[in-house]
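Here's my example:
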Amino acid sequence: MTFLTSVLAFLVAIGILVTVHEYGHYLAARMMGVKVLRFSVGFGRPLFTRHFGRDRTEFVIAAVPLGGYVKMLDEREGAVPPADVTRAFNQKSLSARTFVVSAGPAANFLLAIVLYAVMFMVGVGGVKPVLGEIAPDTPAAAAGLERGQEILRVGDRAVVDWEQANLRLLDHAVRGERVTLLLREEDGREVERDLDLGDRQGLLGEGQFLERVGLRPYRPMLEPRIGSVEGGSPAAAAGLEVGDRVLAVDGEPVGDWNRWVEVVRAHPESDLQVTVERDGRTLELRMSPESVDADGTTIGRIGAGVDTDQSAARDMAVLVRQGPISAFVSGIERTWDVTTLTLGILWRMVTGDASVKNISGPVTIAEFAGVSAVIGISAFLGFLGLVSVSLGIINLLPIPILDGGHLLYYAAEAVKGSPVSERTQMIGQQVGLLAIAGLMTLALYNDLTRLFG
């Protein structure tokens, strides 16, 4: 994966999510009879400007793509012609203003439902939730979980792949509760085990959640045969090709794909001599794995994937594909699950039970955008759905300058019977700016810490 891929995927993602969010505000304003002066995707110098509609609303694409806004006619921001006074935002009822402000985050949640539904219709590829080695002195070990068992159900929810299992387990960990797992033994028998996820601080700290629980996915023994090579990657630069079988690295034999992955991960920025077999010939290649961050640890990566057309890999693969109606229902369920889980983790950060190092900024988001785009359309749709939910939640936080801050003012107005004073709102905006600046600084710090160790 190249830097350019990450940047382009990030810009596409932000462009879609911001446009939908602001369109929610725009559409609601039009429905409530508010005159919209400008619809801007991005901030700063306009790159593209056009006027549309009876009101000649200015549609703008600006130079800085990290956000957007809808500017409405408002007497608090300038003189309003007498003929348009009734169309000013500040003249509308409390319920109308609340509807307009809420429509942006609501649009993000609706978009997430659609994205997840399309993802399920396209088909979601995954790996069966079969347990690998259980780490000692962990909740998984205490529960008596064993290698080779397949997770069938977490609590009262069935799971078919590791993504679903991880989501369900994380939800119970956020709640700090025990959960009963239904598992299938290797001989086909079904058993139940109680897994204690009550140690929130231990389980929701920095790093891989499943590792902290003590779970590792089962990895079948696969031949170290190359199934894909990313363009512009270290593997491509070294001349590695699809179909090559890795025989040795620096003279040491490589018996299976897992061993090959271990060697690559352990040698970031190192010069490796790789012996491969290609069409019956033995070739010597030189390659240097690029350095990437993985949950605070620097590892090597070459941009090559395993040949999954092997019986062991096929036996572990699952594909979830649904029709339109069931996919839409699953889209609603996934959006609800991600929303409640995100809110739970945010609350645990406030109470100190979860690490604030889990907050990600634009660098990490761009990296995930690039990775998901390379994997395929289904993964990218899932990524967009996740970020869309996050954007909706963030905008609903009761922080002045965000939508949630305005809703907080409206709640106060509903209680006291009159709008919050302009001075109070100005002070709130200053506090809100400091809060947002602090969150952005923390997120960027976490990004740089992950990037540079």
Observations:
- The chain has a mean pLDDT of 87.
- Residues 422-452 form the longest helix (31 residues).
